[in-house]
Amino acid sequence: MNDQLEPLLEAYRFIIEEDKNPASRPEFRRFITKRAAGASKIAEKSATKGGFSKLTAIHFKAKAKPYEQCKEHVPDKERNEFFKSKAEETYSKLKDLDSLSQEEFQKLMGELEVWGEVYIRSTKPDSIKLD
Question: pTM of whole model > 0.85?
Answer without folding.
Answer: no
